[in-house]
Amino acid sequence: MLSKEGFCKALQMIKEQESIDEQFSKALDLVGNGHFVFGTENKYLLALRDVLKEAVNDQYDYIDWWLYEAADDYTVWEANCTMKYCLKEPEALYDYITGMLKPIPVSSGESTS
């Protein structure tokens, strides 16, 4: 299995590269009058995400969710809404996927939305 440190480093490097790609795309947009798109379907990135998923047995695509779709609080709730997990940091995501993260009890009246 991939170490937590290696997992976290890979996720942080993905986020850094996406920021660089976004800046580059904005520059192309300025000179191309909106007719350039950069970084879509990047084969290296797709391969890296697949390797990370397999290395930590991410059966439910939490890595993609964390990178692209997570809400600002990065919170995941258990189905019965009595426990939650804060996955803001890549270390917490790793522990969650590998089953090592302890849930946080939900206080009465706390909303799941």
Characterization of the model:
There is one protein chain. With 113 residues, this protein is mainly alpha-helical. The protein has one domain. Helix content is 52%, strand content 8%. Strand 1 (75-77) and strand 2 (83-86) form a beta hairpin. The longest helix is centred in the N-terminal third of the chain and has 29 residues, at 4-32. The two termini are 34 Å apart. The mean pLDDT is 89.
Characteristic terms for this protein:
globular; 52% helix; three-stranded antiparallel β-sheet; 113 residues; mainly alpha
Number of domains: 1
Mean pLDDT: 89
Order of helices and strands: HHHEEHE
Shape: globular
Structure annotation, total helices = 4
Task: Summarize the amount of helix as a percent range.
Answer: 40-55%
Largest beta-sheet details = 3 strands, antiparallel
- How large is the share of residues in beta strands? 5-15%
Structural class: mainly alpha
Number of strands: 3
- Round the Cα radius of gyration to an integer and report it: 17 Å
Question: Low-confidence stretches at least 5 residues in length (pLDDT < 50)?
Answer: none
